[in-house]
Design goal:
The chain is of the alpha+beta class and 240 residues long. It contains five helices and 13 strands. Helix 1 packs antiparallel against helix 2 and helix 3 crosses helix 4. The longest helix has 40 residues. The chain is globular, with a radius of gyration of 21 Å. The two termini are 34 Å apart.
Length: 240
């Protein structure tokens, strides 16, 4: 259950008026409800911790050259809220550092995507065999955003786009830089898609002002939330 729903339930239970004659029953119900909500929150946090541990294990196994790094959850469910896809995505930001008495995160930055398939969470816990991991660095992210912007707009010059993207950010209407939309996106309806075959594993889609990532191996499509796109872009290009 998403945390926002859990919090709303808590507010509803706490604020609901009670009749004097039913005070005992109402209080007992409220206590029971709060206990259930607390258990739900704890369960979500436990799943996040499990996922973060598995992400760390994946990095250790697949990238042994990383010997000192920070791994933090950027989004436990980064897909667009309206996305009705079967798949979800969890996102982690990774940054290297030099071990010392007071370490500073100032090394290479990378982002780890975990694209999940249906059934990855069940009553038995998390099945990480249903997670496809993608590790990208600043250069790869810029390449992805350039390809996405080219397919979503009339601008096709790579060098021009990269210069704008480094100084700006992708918003709903296009790429915004210096307080204005420098590269406007096409105005598509909900049933229109523009696709680019980005790599052997991925296709990128522009639809409803969204970034869609299609995984060829699992045939899953996820639309990444705009806020997560901005957070990733800021992580790579915004000065600390």
């Amino acid at each position: 259950m998403p945390r926002s729903i859990v919090i709303l339930l808590a507010i509803f239970i706490i604020s609901k008026p009670v009749n004097a004659q039913n005070d005992g029953v109402a209080i007992a119900a409220a206590v029971g409800g709060m206990a259930a909500i607390g258990a739900a929150i704890a369960s979500i946090e436990q799943m996040e911790e499990q996922a973060e541990l598995n992400a760390t294990q994946w990095i250790l196994y697949n990238n042994p050259e990383l010997t000192s790094f920070s791994l933090k959850t950027l989004s436990f469910n980064g897909k667009k809220v309206k996305d009705m896809s079967r798949a979800t995505v969890i996102i982690y930001k990774i940054q290297e550092f030099v071990p010392e008495m007071t370490p500073v995160l100032n090394g290479k930055k990378q982002v780890l995507f975990g694209f999940t398939s249906p059934g990855w969470i069940s009553d038995y816990g998390i099945d990480f065999d249903r997670v496809n991991w993608f590790l990208i660095d600043e250069s790869e992210w810029m390449s992805m955003m350039t390809a996405y912007t080219k397919v979503a707009s009339n601008e096709k010059d790579d060098a021009q786009l990269q210069a704008i993207l480094k100084q700006g950010k992708i918003v709903n209407r296009g790429v915004k830089a210096e307080g204005k939309v420098a590269v406007p996106f096409f105005k598509l309806s909900g049933d229109m898609y523009v696709v680019t075959d980005y790599s052997p594993r991925l296709k990128l889609l522009y639809n409803e002002r969204s970034l869609g990532i299609y995984l060829k191996e699992t045939m899953d499509l996820v639309q990444i939330g705009r806020g997560d796109i901005i957070d990733i872009h800021d992580f790579f290009f915004k000065e600390d």
